[in-house]
UniProtKB/TrEMBL annotation, chain A:
Keywords: Protein transport, Transport. It comes from the Eukaryota. InterPro entries: Calcineurin-like_PHP_lpxH, Metallo-depent_PP-like, Phosphodiesterase_MJ0936/Vps29, Vps29. One of its GO terms (biological process) is protein transport. This is Vacuolar protein sorting-associated protein 29. The keyword Transport applies. It comes from Coffea arabica (Arabian coffee). Residues 4-157 form the Calcineurin-like phosphoesterase domain. PANTHER family: VACUOLAR SORTING PROTEIN VPS29 (PTHR11124).
TrEMBL record, chain B:
Belongs to the VPS35 family. Keywords: Membrane, Protein transport, Transport. Gene3D superfamilies: Vacuolar protein sorting-associated protein 35, helical subcomplex Vps35-C. It holds the Pfam family Vps35. This is Vacuolar protein sorting-associated protein 35. It comes from the Eukaryota. It is a peripheral membrane protein. InterPro entries: ARM-type_fold (IPR016024), Vps35 (IPR005378), Vps35_C (IPR042491). The keyword Cell inner membrane does not apply. Plays a role in vesicular protein sorting. It comes from Coffea arabica. It is found in: Membrane.
């Protein structure tokens, strides 16, 4: 069982002062094996903080990131799964699932993690799964009204991945989970 | 004499004679030894040996004629004599050995102090006796001995050994002694310790607090300090500040609700500092920072600190570096407690306090600060801006204007950090206004989206002085989207114009241009407020920029991205298949040209990746039912790619292979779906 934290679009300090306290208390160092970050941290302090939660940190560049040397896309293999990361402002139309599917085919990955819309989604199509962990701070977005802070924890076990989404709604953390198995042909939309 | 004492103690034990008489005799006889050192040790022995034989309350030695008073009298006399001997040591011997003597004395001081300890242990010494007899006599001796070392030590001793309730009740007497002490005595330390003890006492339980009010502790202490400071005119600044610090701690503990007391202390500090100019030494500065931090830590609410009228005045005496340090402390306190600052007056007061971070103060050299530290500093200001909030739009707008005023004076180095958070704060406000009931009358209010957009325009314009065109462009595009949501076409168009101008004139780095183009296309694609003409103009420009990017692959990608500008799902008026096809064909031409270039310069075919990407775009629009995207066009593209990949000049490219494979899988998958979708894809041969 491998735990992968996926989060992004924190926009600290431009749009949010900090991660919600309830999230911070959940993100304890040593429990997570990998972190996938879609970008828009935006400052080094946030990068350093994420590193303390888990040293294996994979980040792609968001358009507001201070660090311009993060890659545009990144791929990595965890267990049986190939994962791809991209912030998403490069994929037009923004948030369009068919265009994201094209990126997934291009990167040839089972799970594509993108951000930019600040809206949590988890969608399965024939090429694999597209996950958007939303904005971990609930930052303002021109695309999504009423953003709730959210992040995703993936539990990768063999050919199966369980996606836990944590959302902060009205001060309470609500958890939902979605199961995905590799090499299943059925397409089901989760949100 | 030692023998005598021992015998005496046995005698007392035997009870053959009343204890008080024996004790009296002993203590008088010890006077025979006038040599300071020997006398001290002798009396100390006497004290030790008689300790458990004092006619205390409930002790076996108590009798009708022998009471606690006698016990007290005995100890007091012993004490007095010991102190005299101790003081005499100071003056014995040549002047050059003074230091050595003082050291010796310091080692012996506990002997003298022991007596006080004994006094405190006597059960029968209650508050009244303490007040009437013990304290008066002890203080008398302390004052009269006129010896600096003795006074300092003994005052401290009194404070340490006797219970705090007693001190509270005798506060006036105790404090009255201080001005009578030798000027060289370190009164401030002793007084501070007294106040610290009383603070702890107050902290120990809520029940003791009424005592404090009853004896008017604050007033007495405050007066005492005032007198001491007046009397010691040349007291160094750190002394003054330490005293007021202790008093402040005391006040925060005992009278947390009396902000006027706190303010009074700060005011007194200001008065004393006023002659001195800015503080020079680091110890004083540290102490002032501690003084100012105390209310923050106690109240955990910046609002309260902002109410203290003397707070900013104290800060004035700090040098610029310390002012910034204090500003950081204030910001950290706000961030830690997550307090929201909710009106423009408070914001104004707060920004005045932290002005060291907001702008260059006179005489401040910017080069002092290391770049990383500067970033951290400004980022904390940015975070602070996120903490300013009021649900009422009018008030929120006032807050925004107040912040704008302050940060625009910050200079080009600070603006890139402070402007974005303010902009987003304002955009959040605009969104709140949109959500509001439409019926709310707009004429009287200042907080309308339109007015806010004007302010936003002004703020972003300030960035041109830095300059940071990329950031400014992103902010213009954000505002454009917000204007779109508010249905303000001219405002949105204006923002787009500004963004485009920045792109054309200021953004010349290739990589930056690629990102900028994607942001422009992405934003424009979502606009619904533009009429046909405006949209056409902006679209035309965007495709123009795309085709002019430096690297061919970048051009290709930007151009096919532009195809989405002509087909927007939820807007029927924007479904122009013809223009979509034109874009995709143009992209193909560019991809071809890129291929040929690669052939020419490297002797082998470049990657087919671009073609596969364009194929996917064809499929996207094919799926949407754009009639101009025919099966034939898709088919021929597939064949083109297949040929390229199998051709002689082909360079093996596993990524492209995988991409093509997954694209073909997708087509097959669609076919397998059956129904209307399956039929559509049926004709495509893979």
């Amino acid at each position: 069982m491998v735990l992968v934290l996926a989060l992004g679009d924190l926009h600290i300090p431009h749009r949010a002062p900090d991660l919600p306290t309830k999230f911070k208390s959940m993100l304890v160092p040593g429990k997570i094996q990998h972190i996938i970050c879609t970008g828009n941290l935006c400052i080094k302090e946030v990068h350093d903080y994420l590193k303390t939660i888990c040293p294996d940190l994979h980040i792609t560049r968001g358009e507001y990131d201070e660090e311009t040397r993060y890659p545009e896309t990144k791929t990595l293999t965890i267990g049986q799964f190939k994962l791809g990361i991209c912030h998403g402002h490069q994929v037009i139309p923004w948030g369009d699932l068919d265009s994201l599917a094209m990126l997934q085919r291009q990167l040839d990955v089972d799970i594509l993690v993108t951000g930019h819309t600040h809206q949590f989604t988890a969608y399965k199509h024939e090429a694999g799964v597209v996950i958007n962990p939303g904005s971990a701070t609930g930052a303002y977005s021109s695309i999504t009204y009423d953003v709730n802070p959210s992040f995703v924890l993936m539990d990768i076990d063999g050919l199966r991945v369980v996606v836990y989404v944590y959302e902060l709604i009205d001060g309470e953390v609500k958890v939902d989970k979605i199961d995905f198995k590799k090499t299943t042909a059925s397409a089901n939309s989760a949100h | 004499m030692y023998l005598l004492c021992t015998v005496g103690s046995v005698y007392i034990k035997s009870k053959e004679a009343p204890a008080k008489d024996i004790l009296k005799d002993l203590v008088e006889m010890c006077r025979g030894i006038q040599h300071p050192l020997r006398g001290l040790f002798l009396r100390s022995y006497l004290s030790q040996v008689s300790r458990d034989k004092l006619p205390d309350l409930g002790s076996e030695y108590e009798g009708d004629a022998e009471t606690v008073s006698d016990a007290v009298e005995f100890v007091l006399q012993n004490f007095t004599e010991m102190n005299k001997l101790w003081v005499r040591m100071q003056h014995q011997g040549p002047a050059r050995e003074k230091e050595k003597r003082e050291k010796e004395r310091s080692e012996l001081r506990d002997l003298v102090g022991k007596n006080l300890h004994v006094l405190s242990q006597i059960e029968g010494v209650d508050l009244d006796m303490y007040r009437e007899t013990v304290l008066t006599r002890v203080l008398e001796q302390v004052v009269n001995c006129k010896d600096e070392i003795a006074q300092c030590y003994l005052m401290d001793c009194i404070i340490q050994v006797f219970p705090d309730e007693y001190h509270l009740q005798t506060l006036e007497t105790l404090l009255g002694a201080f001005p009578q002490l030798q000027p060289s005595v370190d009164i401030k330390t002793v007084l501070s310790r007294l106040m610290d003890r009383l603070s702890n006492y107050a902290a120990s339980s809520a029940e003791v607090l009424p005592e404090f009010f009853q004896v008017e502790a604050f007033a007495k202490l405050s007066n005492a300090i005032g007198k001491v400071i007046e009397a010691q005119d040349d007291m160094p600044v750190i002394g003054v500040v330490t005293l007021y610090s202790s008093l402040l701690t005391f006040t925060l503990q005992v009278h947390p609700d009396r902000l006027d007391f706190v303010d009074q202390i700060l005011g007194a500090c200001v008065t004393k500092l006023s002659g001195k100019g800015k503080l020079e030494d680091s110890k004083s500065r540290k102490q002032v920072v501690a003084l100012l931090s105390a209310p923050l830590q106690k109240y955990n609410d910046i609002d309260i600190a902002l109410k203290l009228s003397n707070y900013p005045h104290v800060m004035e005496y700090l040098d610029n570096g310390t002012k910034k340090e204090m500003a950081s402390v204030i910001i950290q306190s706000i961030m830690k407690n997550k307090t929201l600052i909710s009106n423009s007056e408070k914001v104004e007061a707060l920004f005045e306090l932290i002005k060291g971070l907001i702008k260059d103060l006179e005489g401040n050299l910017q080069s002092e600060l290391d770049e990383e530290d500067f970033h951290e500093e400004q980022n904390s200001v940015a975070r602070l801006i996120q903490m300013l909030h009021n649900d009422d739009p009018e008030e929120m707008l006032k807050i925004i204007c107040t912040v704008k005023k302050h940060i625009l004076a910050g200079g080009p180095k600070r603006l890139p950090f402070t402007v974005p958070p303010l902009i987003f704060n304002a955009l959040k406000l605009i969104r709140r206004l949109q959500n509001r009931d439409e019926n709310v009358a707009e004429e009287d209010t200042a907080a309308t989206p339109k007015k806010i957009f004007q302010i936003l325009n002004q703020i972003i314009e300030a960035l041109s002085s830095v300059p940071v065109p990329e950031v400014a462009m992103r902010l213009y595009l954000q505002c454009a989207e917000a204007a779109d949501d508010s249905d303000l076409e001219p405002v949105a168009y204006e923002f787009f114009t500004q963004a485009y101008l920045l792109y054309e004139e200021e953004i010349s780095d290739s990589k930056a241009q690629v990102t900028a183009i994607h942001l422009i296309i992405g934003t424009l694609q979502r606009m619904h407020v533009f009429g046909v003409e405006n949209r056409d103009t902006l679209t035309h420009k965007a495709t123009g920029y795309s085709a002019k990017l430096l690297k061919k692959p970048d051009q290709c990608r930007a151009v096919y991205a532009c195809s989405h500008l002509f087909w927007v799902d939820d807007q029927d008026s924007i479904k122009d298949g013809e223009r979509v096809l034109l874009c995709l064909k143009r992209a193909l031409r560019i991809a071809n040209a890129a291929q040929q270039m690669a052939n020419a310069t490297r002797g082998s075919g470049g990657s087919v990746a671009l073609f596969i990407e364009i194929l996917n775009k064809y499929l996207y629009f094919f799926e949407k039912g754009v009639t101009q995207i025919t099966v034939a066009s898709v088919q021929s593209l597939i064949e083109l790619i297949t040929n390229e990949m199998q051709g002689e000049n082909a360079t093996p490219d596993p990524t492209a292979d995988a991409f093509f494979a997954s694209t073909l899988r997708f087509i097959q998958f669609q076919k397998d779906k059956g129904g209307a979708v399956g039929e559509k894809y049926e004709a495509i041969k893979v």
